[in-house]
């Protein structure tokens, strides 16, 4: 029997289409409320998704798409992820955090804290923000050229991983008799100097439950040894190929038939306001049964280990996914629900990495 397919869901904003807010089931001002974040995360968890991701950027979403009259604000992905983590119990949560212009020391601390809050259910979707507007938003000199951005991303992830290991698992001893909270011999300095930043360490957050968060990255962004899950975007199913990383997820945009309108009609309604940009992803438009067949065939082919779904309109498509698609996949044993008490690494079948600085770090699954 093939290994179960892991399903991730992108839940930022109102959907993958720039005009998705026009068909949302809530008023525009509800998009940035805690109730919205908790509600969507809870639906995804109850449906059986392995994890959710939350997009982010320093700049407003969907600039220049002709939908400026709609909601363009967002709360930071890490902050939303922390709230969702406290509102769920088994769902993996992976915010998008760009490495461009961000201090990796702060990024690693935020993400390690998220792993503590979620008790080991956190991941990191690595991104870059190469536009000059991003540099101006940060108040930083622009990083010139794509190679420089890739080098900064590589350095940032390396530093974050080093910082996550800068505390050994048993560094916190809480010895009341000697008034010692930690063993300083189990803290390590990383001493890194790159083109755009320098970090000495150690981290200010103890090693998190997973040791290392699950790192997701688009295909080709980072060296394979720094990535746990590669996100591959291909316009055709036959183009999907396994990456040289432990796991590979396909990026799939979906527009589904609903009880009130077909996927084609819904898409045509939104296309009157703005086009759905071609991001090079596999795209499915049609009924729930067709998506079930597509995902079943991907699982059977063995070219990918999971799929990240980008719904056309989150409020409309998530209802169909939770009522029709995921139950059918679960019944056919194409997917498996996360197990209570398991870390995201355990759910994905990834081992808990040994601490690179420890002489005899423990191994095994994170729980």
Description:
By secondary structure, the protein is of the alpha/beta class. It has one domain (6-348): Luciferase-like domain (TIM Barrel). The protein has nine helices and 13 strands. The protein has helices spanning 34-47, 77-86, 104-117, 132-138, 146-164, 263-271, 288-301, 314-331, 344-348, and strands at 6-10, 51-54, 92-98, 123-127, 172-175, 180-182, 192-193, 198-199, 214-218, 229-232, 247-256, 282-286, 306-311. The strands form three sheets. The chain has an eight-stranded parallel barrel with strand order 1-2-3-4-9-10-11-13, surrounded by six helices. The protein has a two-stranded antiparallel ribbon with strand order 5-6. Helix 2 (77-86) packs parallel to helix 3, helix 3 packs across helix 5 (146-164) and helix 7 (288-301) crosses helix 8 (314-331). The longest helix has 19 residues, at 146-164. It is globular and about 65 Å long. Mean pLDDT is 90; it is low at 63-68 and 360-367.
Provide a concise account of the structure shown.
Helices cover 30% and strands 17% of the residues. The chain is of the alpha/beta class and 367 residues long. The protein has a single domain (6-348), classed as TIM Barrel (Alpha-Beta Barrel), CATH 3.20.20.
């Amino acid at each position: 029997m093939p290994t179960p397919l892991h399903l991730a869901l992108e839940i930022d904003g109102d959907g993958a289409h720039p005009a998705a807010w026009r068909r949302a089931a809530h008023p525009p001002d509800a998009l940035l409320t805690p109730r919205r974040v908790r509600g969507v995360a809870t639906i995804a968890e109850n449906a059986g998704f392995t994890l959710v991701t939350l997009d982010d950027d320093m700049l407003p979403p969907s600039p220049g798409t002709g939908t400026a009259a709609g909601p363009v604000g967002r709360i930071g992905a890490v902050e939303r992820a922390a709230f969702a983590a406290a509102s769920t119990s088994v769902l993996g949560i992976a915010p998008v955090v760009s490495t461009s212009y961000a201090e990796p020391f702060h990024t690693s601390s935020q993400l390690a804290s998220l792993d503590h809050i979620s008790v080991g259910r956190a991941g990191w979707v690595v991104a870059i923000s190469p536009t000059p507007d991003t540099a101006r938003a940060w108040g930083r000199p622009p990083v010139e050229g794509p190679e420089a951005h890739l080098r900064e991303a590589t350095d940032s992830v390396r530093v974050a991983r080093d910082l996550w290991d800068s505390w050994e698992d048993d560094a916190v001893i809480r010895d009341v008799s000697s008034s010692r909270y930690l063993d300083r011999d189990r803290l390590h300095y990383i001493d890194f100097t790159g083109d755009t930043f320098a970090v000495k360490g150690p981290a200010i957050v103890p090693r998190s439950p997973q040791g290392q968060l699950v790192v997701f990255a688009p295909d080709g962004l980072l060296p394979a040894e720094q990535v746990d899950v590669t996100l591959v975007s291909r316009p055709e199913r036959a183009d999907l190929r396994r990456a040289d990383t432990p796991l590979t997820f396909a990026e799939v945009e979906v527009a589904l038939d609903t009880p009130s309108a077909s996927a084609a009609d819904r898409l045509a309604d939104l296309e009157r306001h703005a086009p759905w940009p071609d991001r090079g992803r596999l795209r499915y438009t049609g009924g729930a049964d067709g998506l079930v067949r597509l995902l079943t065939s991907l699982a059977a082919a063995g070219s990918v280990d999971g799929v990240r779904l980008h719904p056309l309109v989150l409020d409309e498509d998530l209802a169909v996914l939770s009522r029709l698609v995921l139950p059918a996949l679960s019944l056919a044993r194409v997917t498996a629900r996360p197990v209570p008490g398991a870390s995201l690494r355990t759910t994905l079948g990834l081992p808990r990495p040994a601490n690179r600085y420890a002489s005899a770090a423990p191994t095994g699954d994170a729980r």
